[in-house]
Amino acid sequence: MENYNIIIIGAGMAGLCAAVEAVSNNVRVLILEKENEIGGSSLLSGRYMAFANTDLQMQEGIQDSTEMLVNDLLTVGDGANERSLVEAYGQHQLETYQWLIEKGVQFHAVQAVSGHSVPRGHQITPKQAIQTLFDLANSNSNVTFLLNADVKRLRKNNEGKVTEVFYVKDGKEFNAIAEDGVIIASGGFSKSETLLNAFAPQLKGALRIGGKGNVGDGIKLAWEQGAWMRDFPFLKGTYGFHPSADGPRKSQGLVFYKGAIIINAEAKRFVNESISYKLIGTKALEQSDGITYQIWDQAIMKESVPGDALYDFDKLLDLGLIEQANSLSELAQKIDVPEKALLETIQTYNSDVSKGVDQQFGRSTLTHNFGNPTTISEGPFYGMRTTVAMLATYAGIAVDEQARVLNPYNEPIEGLYAAGELVGGFHGAGYMTGSSLGKAAIFGRIAVRTAIQNINTESLFVKG
């Protein structure tokens, strides 16, 4: 049995940020990743991190602030968020953005995405970010990474502190001691039919495209130690995926945040397209056979962003996932919706946009409080069949602003911390794009700081 200061379960964004933070504090760390590669669902993300008042925003003339970011998170979460978690995010967000840059993570551009009052979606390349953080941690002599190491149980010591971790590697059972804390950062449960059927039966029709290891085992580990749950009533799928996304390619396009409308099989709009794609997903699953389409014109098509995971519409067209037509009548035939109904829907929408009032659903922006809708009138015209997917669950165990796991009485479970997707309470009833990777980085670092704050430096373990 080996002893460490900290044991981290999971090597996605949260676990790797925790590992790098631990390196900076000269503590001995073991990272256990049950898959044969690092990254988890972080590699499947939409590539955005939500930060405010950054240099990238200033270069674009974008006026933002921590207060605006926090207010947007609370608004999108419909006030169901744990305010202390959101405020902790706000307190540490700019510092974490600068820390990531210092560590070598590259930010490419800023976009307005779901839930943003101003453009604050800072685009990364997930593989570059994950590999950079891994290389930093793995190069330190105080850090041990074990892949294909499946954690099975946790155990408290005689004083009631979670310290012992049992795991299986290469068919053999091992255990290790974490003197100062166990940090669970093992992702959600988007690939667990058992948990999804138990907590979100309404999402039965959604694609399952999360990381293959996301089966909720980290949540179960915490439950056994007495952890409470948060946000399970708000479980929702993500709208914007082509039905082929359940294969190797996770094809996604959020054209509606650039001005497209969303229709059902009857060619009727059914939702305000500017709201969170989680809320849109709920409405989409209620439509006949779950069939919906995004519809837009050439003016909106020109808003395509090359290389962007959410906004590269030209790539989706090249892949044959978008239908193109010279007229709306021709488009109706290609996507097999009633021609007359589609023409009426577009005519009504265009008339409302021209008047500045969407009488059907109240759309007044492109996304959240940002951007102005435009008419759909410039051919050629485009349509993409779009569906809902379970990419991430955003519900899980209760933590406080110090990343300490809480029991049902809001008391910290000594020695147990959590960060990343398996944490509940942060998002509330909705979801702001970029806040998942953002909270993973922020609370991964916070978890380490909390765990080691009482360490006597003379007792630190250092590899020989």
Gap from first CA to last CA:
17 Å
Low-confidence stretches: 456-464
Percentage of β-strand residues: 15-25%
Structural class label: alpha/beta
Mean pLDDT over the full residue set: 94
Quickly count the helices: 13
Outline the biggest β-sheet: 8 strands, mixed
Shape: elongated
In which range does the helix fraction lie?
Answer: 25-40%
How many beta-strand runs?
19
Radius of gyration: 23 Å
Overview of this protein structure:
By secondary structure, the chain is of the alpha/beta class. Helices cover 30% and strands 22% of the residues. It has helices spanning 13-24, 55-59, 66-76, 83-103, 126-138, 193-199, 217-224, 277-285, 298-301, 313-318, 328-335, 339-355, 435-452; strands spanning 2-9, 29-33, 48-50, 107-111, 121-124, 143-147, 149-156, 162-169, 172-184, 207-208, 229-230, 238-241, 261-264, 292-297, 323-325, 381-390, 396-397, 404-406, 412-418. Strands 1, 2, 6, 7, 8, 9, 18 and 19 form an eight-stranded mixed sheet that branches. Strand 7 (149-156) and strand 8 form a beta hairpin. It starts with a strand and ends in a 12-residue tail after the last helix. The relative contact order is 0.20. Residues 456-464 have low confidence and may be disordered.
